[in-house]
């Protein structure tokens, strides 16, 4: 077990956990839960036969099945790790298998839409505690996961009004045990915060990579060759899972469009400063933005090493 | 000496090299030239007493001075490593010291403006070979440099019409010896290519970090906490040297505004796709952008490791 993952529990937090969707996030939860003894039994459910077979090979769950209703049966905690666009359909489909009193959670990057989709399908005696671990890499699938993905990252819970306090607490303890810092806020506020810290950055990254690919005056090979000037930083998040991100934008439409509007206003000002040679305005902004990075580094959310510590064995 | 820096030369390429400006780039050239025996004598010239003192402490040059005219005296190769906005003034000021037949080069991220600034100040018998090593980190100053910064990166030469072929060849050999791949193109094309691969990405990064800092609905502490969702990637290049970047935008105005215009057109389309729920358009773009990253990785300009290989000692 990796040193910094924390001690494993002497007694599991949940008798039986079902993870729906074994991509990067689902498979990382499975690995962490296994390492830390958070669950008596871990059940992996995925609609893909291939993923289920791979999960068995990787031995990251105790049981693996494509059968949703059978998979959630007797589970004390069910976590949806699927694209936010299908959360409602999955909730509806798994309903017949849910145990009375069980907790349903998720990991979606959008919360208001997920609540609106899932809540109506859940029986009264099932507790819904939406969650969003703010962590990930640009890679996808069950092989991409690892147990420390959530270590020292934040996990946001957005319990709807009237949610069961004990259920919230159990989900909080679960994510704390995994190594995350847990914060609770409203789904609406979450969606606004994530629009600027995650969704709009991804949209901008996808956009600039697309624009560069389409230029008629600069070849794609030139874009690739000279990407070390800054462009390549954007390509990382523009390599993230297309289905997941399509769904995020469609399901957090208002907040994304609002933040994008603000960004456009600011960029129009910057363009004007460049056009009119107003160097002071540029300099002021460029000085201010350094402080934010310092804050991110000192809070432990980023490495202080130059170039993200990109591997450079030959550094002198 | 680091393993992958290549063999040091048995005979220096230049008797005497003067580096003007000992920031990240200048001090990295000094270190590489020293390691690889590219120069009989390395002279460091910086207008800052503090930088000159630090260069002496670091022992990365044979001589260090604040006196520009004395510093370039007898040099066979003079490399301007200063912000592009002051290249003309530096060229004018150093002119009395330049040895007939010497080569003057630079490392500026903008080329047409630098040529227009520098060329008029150089005597007929001095050869100007503008260069741009496409490499860097977000750190600045003489302590930030390292000898392998340019290893496997591209260095673009943009010799003006009628430039001396032998001088071009000597600069090419210099950068090859440092470990760079060298490409020759026109200054105009360079400025267009770099606008999209470097300048606009920086502008966008500075802009999004600035917008996030100014929100009234999301606190700065929330932006910092939840930055692992993608935002933190942008903060790296938005922490680059403010003076250097102010000058780049002011001196590559047309190409930057042109590329920014295209970006804005594309983002308007994306915003419209989100507003109208056109998931297919989003999905198509998000799939296309993955291929560009694969190209950058397979060309050796980026690490294949997830998350840029950010240090995660506890990865399981």
Keywords summarizing the entry:
six-stranded parallel beta sheet, alpha/beta, Rossmann fold, 6-phosphogluconate dehydrogenase C-terminal fold, homodimer, 316 residues, 2 domains
Give an account of the 3D structure.
The structure is a homodimer of 316-residue chains. With 316 residues, chain A is of the alpha/beta class. The first copy, chain A, has two domains: 3-185, NAD(P)-binding Rossmann-like Domain (Rossmann fold), CATH 3.40.50; 189-300, 6-phosphogluconate dehydrogenase C-terminal like domain (6-phosphogluconate dehydrogenase C-terminal fold), CATH 1.10.3660. Helix content of chain A is 48%, strand content 12%. Chain A has twelve helices and nine strands. Chain A has helices at 24-36, 49-58, 68-72, 87-94, 112-118, 165-178, 187-214, 220-225, 231-237, 242-251, 253-275, 279-298, and strands at 14-20, 39-45, 63-65, 77-80, 103-106, 127-129, 131-133, 154-157, 181-184. In chain A, strands 3-2-1-4-5-6 form a six-stranded parallel sheet, sandwiched between helices. In chain A, strand 5, helix 5 and strand 6 form a beta-alpha-beta unit. In chain A, helix 4 (87-94) runs parallel beside helix 5 (112-118). The two termini of chain A are 33 Å apart. The interface between A and B is large, with 123 and 123 residues. Chains A, B: It is an enzyme of class 1 (oxidoreductase). Chains A, B: It catalyses: prephenate + NAD(+) = 3-(4-hydroxyphenyl)pyruvate + CO2 + NADH. Chains A, B: Its EC number is 1.3.1.12.
């Amino acid at each position: 077990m990796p040193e910094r993952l924390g001690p494993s529990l002497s007694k599991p937090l949940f008798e039986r956990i079902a993870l729906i969707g074994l991509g990067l996030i689902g498979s990382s939860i499975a690995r962490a839960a296994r390492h830390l003894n958070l669950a008596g039994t871990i059940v992996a459910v995925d609609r893909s036969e291939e993923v289920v077979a791979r999960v068995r090979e990787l031995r990251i769950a105790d049981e693996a099945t494509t059968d949703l209703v059978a998979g959630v049966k007797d589970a004390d905690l069910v976590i949806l790790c699927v694209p936010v666009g299908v959360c409602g359909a999955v909730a509806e489909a798994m309903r017949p298998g849910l145990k009375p009193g069980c907790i349903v959670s998720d990991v979606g990057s959008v919360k208001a839409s997920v609540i609106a989709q899932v809540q109506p399908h859940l029986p009264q005696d099932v507790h819904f505690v939406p969650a969003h671990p703010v962590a990930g890499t640009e890679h996808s699938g069950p092989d991409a996961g690892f147990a420390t993905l959530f270590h020292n990252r934040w996990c946001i819970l957005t319990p709807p009004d009237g949610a069961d306090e004990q259920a919230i607490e159990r989900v909080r303890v679960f994510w704390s045990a995994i190594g995350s810092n847990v914060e609770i806020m409203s789904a609406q506020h979450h969606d606004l915060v994530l629009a600027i810290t995650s969704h709009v950055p991804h949209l901008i990254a996808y956009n600039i990579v697309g624009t560069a690919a389409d230029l008629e005056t600069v070849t794609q090979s030139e874009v690739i060759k000279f990407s070390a000037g800054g462009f390549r930083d954007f390509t990382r998040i523009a390599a993230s899972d297309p289905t997941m991100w399509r769904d995020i934008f469609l399901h957090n439409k208002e907040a994304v469009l609002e933040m994008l509007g603000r960004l456009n206003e600011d960029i129009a000002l910057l363009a004007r400063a460049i056009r009119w040679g107003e160097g002071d305005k540029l300099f002021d902004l460029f000085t201010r933005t350094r402080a934010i990075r310092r804050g991110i580094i000192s809070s432990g959310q980023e490495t202080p090493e130059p170039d993200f510590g990109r591997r450079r064995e030959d550094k002198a």
